[in-house]
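Morning F.,

Quick status update on the modeling queue. The single chain you submitted on Monday has been processed. Sequence for confirmation:
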Amino acid sequence: MIKTLLATALLSTIATPASSAWLNQHGVTIFDQYDLPASHQPLYRALDRANVPVADGHDWELCAPKPDSYLAGFYVPALNVIVLCTESPAPDIWGTLVHEAVHAVQDCRAGQDNSAMYHATAQYMVDGLEQSELDTIRDLYPADEHLDEVEARFLDQYPDYVADQLDTYCL
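Structure tokens below.
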């Protein structure tokens, strides 16, 4: 817990994303576009323009898999940072990046530098998800976050669209 809090506190001092994946001065690894597959580089560049760094949480306690669950990644609205849990058993870390980038868009719609989110969920998004995904959202998230999660899960297969949304709402 202390390591997670320390890492979060250190991330709050980062003003802009690093230009490479070297350890920054605070010991937090920041991804650069070349760490990502070509299909996700436009998304990375949009995140970079929006000053939303992507951090590797491989050694964060919050990212450590539990016996019955794991965290693939998360977005911290108050810090405007995405953390990918690269050591998690998540099958698609790049899908997680897109999912968390949707949360960054939601944050931009509500105004960055606060904890508010604003979703643009439509019925076709709800209809486009499997019932098992909707059940997971209902089971894992508070009711006031359900539509945020529906939008993020629906759009996590569309990195270019999410990149466009970042440019629209975050610049």
